[in-house]
TrEMBL record:
GO molecular function: 2 iron, 2 sulfur cluster binding; metal ion binding; oxidoreductase activity, acting on NAD(P)H
GO cellular component, one term: mitochondrion
UniProt entry keywords in alphabetical sequence: 2Fe-2S, FAD, Flavoprotein, Iron, Iron-sulfur, Metal-binding, Oxidoreductase
UniProt xrefs under PANTHER family: APOPTOSIS-INDUCING FACTOR 1 (PTHR43557), APOPTOSIS-INDUCING FACTOR 3 (PTHR43557:SF8)
PROSITE patterns: RIESKE
The protein, known as: Rieske domain-containing protein
Superkingdom per UniProt: Eukaryota
Region of interest: Disordered: 24-59
Length: 599
């Protein structure tokens, strides 16, 4: 249980404890039987997803040798609101004390492996310090994104003032668990041109939509179509880890999708939608009808016009193959990055230890000025300059000239010539909605699909989510906004799936994104568009700072480097509906925002 048994057993505590063969136990039960205080924010009490390694639920009963039991601390070692990472001999767990009760869960965030002991504990859940995912401490369920998996939970009891944890060894090793999913009950020929739910795209919005449907008991056909040749993969890592393969980046394997009756059609590009006949036509002529449609096609890079367009060494980073080619061509050669988007700058950073030279050509004089402000942008720019990256302005470029199928150089108006053995265009993106122009689905002037709070479009039975949409954002009085974050796409997929099943759901999350360069990570939470001031605490020169973005007298977003878990702490405050005033962060004393609950 999460608290203490009323009648402690007189058992001698050991690291391993042999039990009677008759003892049978279910490890997946909540240790204290309490419902989540955020149950209204999540479908059916959980958003747990299976990993490739543990997609099959553990058997209901386990043999005693499958368990480990250990005394981990004295009952008074933890105060209320504190967490401690403890060793059970066969693995580690996170011990938590809140409201006088103990609970134990896996100690790593299943998204990227962040130590949850360094996260934020609040009101029955713990928030990851790196990317803001939330887990219920009683059930281990994933309550807010990013990520696909939930956490295993472990039994806790107190005997003679000793806190004892009993855990399944396999769960200790995996540090993640899945929520059971329904199977498709209909016998369907895979060539049949009809699907109860048709999903266009294979990013996080698409994948979470499909998995949530199955988790919520949906037993009809689900088909997911994608232009990609690979199963779903972690696209944000492409620009940070250029040499990673699709296999290394995968989110779900083909086998996982097959096991849960989520049909995946790769290299299928949608070219037209007819909302009257409820059908989608693909480039190869294949046509599929649907009952419900979810559009999650994401964004596509902005293109640039230059001489010698048909060249093989200029890339818009989209696929693992693109990333691998960039890394190979840049090895001991000269790289030119056009654009100072987060993707462009991440690629530039990743190439500095591979390329002979790295040059960045930007539209703005300071990278990230619009998103992070001039002061933060200049501090990050210095980090690049220290690492031998040269900056130039796009208006300085005279021409980009290709020869014999290769871009050879970028000529500047000053007469200087930049050698370009490989070039990456990172000048931003636009929504991939060109195929919808005659489809009868309302879009705004920029090509974004407009949806309501249930992720429904103007067409009956058609939903959309991720980078392609503008949606009513509660934190801005339901103003329709576009937030192209990986984390936000997960939320859209969940809400769309629940809406399809007639279950009330709304967006209840704080936007969260991150960017990694030179081993340093920028974390950001909130929605800062239109900020009118930036309050800096810490040291920009040392890249250890917190930046609070304000509109009028209210903090609307926060960014940090080397100041964990403050961004997750602010996300927790904003997510609770509270307001942080500008005056609260101007004083220089932000100790009230810094978590001190871990040991």
């Amino acid at each position: 249980m999460g608290g203490c048994f009323s009648k402690p057993k007189p058992v001698e505590v050991k690291v391993e404890l042999s039990l009677l063969e008759k003892e049978k136990e279910v490890d997946g039960l909540s240790p204290n039987g309490k419902a989540s205080p955020f149950a209204d924010c999540r479908p059916n009490g959980a958003l747990g997803h299976g990993s490739d390694d543990d997609s099959t639920p553990l058997p209901l009963y386990h043999k005693p040798r499958d368990y480990v039991e250990a005394s981990v601390c004295h009952v008074k070692d933890l105060e209320n609101g504190q967490m401690r990472e403890v060793d059970l001999g066969s693995g580690r767990a996170l011990l938590i004390k809140e409201h006088g009760e103990f609970s134990a869960i896996a100690h790593k965030c299943p998204h990227y492996g962040a130590p949850l002991v360094k996260g934020v504990l609040s009101k029955g859940h713990v928030r990851c310090p790196w990317h803001g995912a939330c887990f219920n401490i009683a059930t281990g369920d994933l309550e807010d994104f990013p990520g696909l998996d939930s956490l295993p939970i472990f039994q806790v009891r107190v005997e003679k003032d000793k806190v004892i944890i009993r855990a399944n060894k396999q769960a200790l090793q995996s540090q993640k668990r899945s929520k059971p999913m329904a199977r498709c009950s209909a016998v369907i020929n895979s060539s049949t041109g009809f699907s109860h739910v048709l999903i266009i795209g294979s990013g996080p919005a698409a994948l979470v939509c499909a998995e949530t449907l199955r988790q919520e008991g949906f037993t009809d056909r689900i088909v997911m179509c994608t232009m990609d040749r690979h199963p779903p993969y972690d696209r944000p890592k492409l620009s940070k880890s250029l040499e990673s393969t699709a296999e290394q980046l995968r989110l779900r394997s083909v086998e996982f999708l097959q096991d849960h009756d989520i049909e995946l059609l790769t290299e299928k590009e949608a070219v037209a939608i007819d909302v009257k006949t409820r059908s989608v036509t693909f480039e190869d002529g294949f046509r599929m009808e649907y009952r419900k449609l979810f559009i999650a096609t994401g964004s596509k890079p902005k293109t640039m016009i230059y001489k010698g367009m048909d060249v093989s060494n200029v890339f818009h980073l989209r696929t693992p193959e693109d990333a691998n080619s960039i890394a190979r061509l840049a090895n001991n050669k000269n790289a030119v990055i056009v654009g100072t988007s987060f993707v462009g700058m991440e690629v530039a950073a990743a190439l500095t230890d591979k390329a002979h030279s790295v040059s960045v050509i930007g539209i703005e004089t300071v990278p990230f000025k619009q998103a992070l402000g001039e002061k933060v942008g200049k501090a990050i720019m210095k980090l690049f300059e220290v690492n031998r990256v040269k900056f130039y302005m796009l208006n300085e470029v005279s021409e980009m000239v290709g020869q014999h199928g290769q871009l050879k150089e970028v000529a500047l108006k000053s007469g200087k010539v930049l050698r370009a053995d490989v070039c990456v265009i990172g000048a931003g993106s636009i929504p991939a909605t060109g195929f919808l122009k005659q489809g009868g689905i309302h879009m705004d002037s920029r090509g974004f699909i407009t949806v309501n709070k249930m992720m429904q479009t103007s067409a009956d039975g058609v939903y959309a989510g991720g980078d392609v949409v503008v949606f009513p954002f509660p934190a801005r009085n339901n103003k329709k906004v576009n937030i192209p974050h990986w984390q936000m796409a997960h939320v859209h997929g969940r809400v769309a799936a629940l809406s399809m099943m007639g279950k009330a759901a709304e967006i209840k999350t704080v936007p969260y994104f991150w960017s990694a360069m030179f081993g340093k990570t920028i974390r950001y939470a909130g929605y800062g568009e239109g900020f009118d001031d930036v309050i800096i605490q810490g040291d920009l020169d040392e890249l250890r700072f917190v930046a609070f973005y304000t509109r009028s007298e209210e903090v609307v977003a926060v960014a940090s480097m080397n100041y964990d878990p403050i961004v997750s702490r602010v996300a927790e405050v904003l997510g609770s509906g509270k307001t942080i005033k500008k005056r609260d962060v101007e004083t220089g004393d932000i100790s009230w925002l810094i978590d001190k609950g871990s040991q």
